[in-house]
Specification:
Blueprint lengths: L6 E6 L5 H9 L2 E7 L6 E6 H10 L6 E6 L5 E10 L6 E8 L5 E11 L5 H4 L3 E4 L3 E7 L6 E5 L8 E3 L10 E2 L6 E6 L2 H15 L20
């Protein structure tokens, strides 16, 4: 179940070196290079506004793109470096690496939930919290899942669901080497507040219940 790979449109850059890169920036482009595989490096330009928007969306370096350049076959790439202006922190150059279908990469995969309609915890008023709406997995470039599924049909209030309970796509594995929590069902806020109030009231003691022998003398008097 391969996920949809977003397109990234670029232009082939004519000329190389600092002069061509400066001209690209003056034209509102960000110069870059596509390398790797069995093909020569390809100098490219990407519109600044397009690249800046994608960078702001986050996780740019862990997103697989389908790069489209006129005159060249589409190729799957992943960002390997973004150079930025030392003062303005704006992108000034970008490097992409071509990927083979068998290449292993780290990607964030969306989490989908099933079993909400029958979960005993939710039926009792519990609240589902998705701790990780996405999970970072090591996957192959040629077989990228569009999501992983978690089943909460048997979860009660107070239960946690961890990554070890999830059936991952063949060949995929988490980047984190521990059994981390993905989702949990907690008590509804009203019930939790009532429980907190009961705990506090148990600690409070009415002044009339304090033995007089344990009370200190009035101010100004000796015991």
């Amino acid at each position: 179940m391969a996920g949809e790979i977003p397109d990234l449109v670029a232009q082939e850059r004519t000329g190389t070196g600092k002069g061509a890169a400066r001209q690209a920036r003056r034209d509102g482009m960000v110069p870059g290079i596509v390398f790797g595989g069995d093909t020569d490096p390809l100098p490219i330009n990407i519109p600044f506004n397009v690249l800046f928007k994608k960078l702001k969306e986050g996780r740019f370096k862990s997103t697989l793109f389908n790069m489209k350049v006129d005159g060249h076959e589409d190729v799957r790439v992943i960002c390997r470096d973004v150079q930025r202006h030392v003062v303005k922190d704006l992108p000034t150059h970008i490097d992409f690496m071509r990927l083979k279908r068998t290449t292993k990469i780290n990607l964030f995969i969306a989490v989908e939930v099933e079993g909400e309609d029958v979960s005993p915890g939710l039926k009792k008023g519990g609240v589902l919290t998705l701790i990780r709406p996405e999970v970072e997995l090591i996957v192959t470039a040629g077989d990228i899942p569009d999501h992983i599924t978690i089943d909460i049909s048997e979860m009660e209030i107070g239960d946690n669901l961890t990554i070890s309970s999830v059936t991952l796509p063949q060949g995929a594995k988490p980047t984190i080497d521990r059994d981390f929590v993905i989702a949990q069902i907690s008590a509804p806020s009203g019930l939790a507040s009532q429980s907190d109030d009961e705990d506090e009231s148990a600690d409070d003691v009415d002044v009339d219940e304090v033995p007089t022998t344990e009370m200190g003398p009035p101010d100004g008097e000796e015991s």
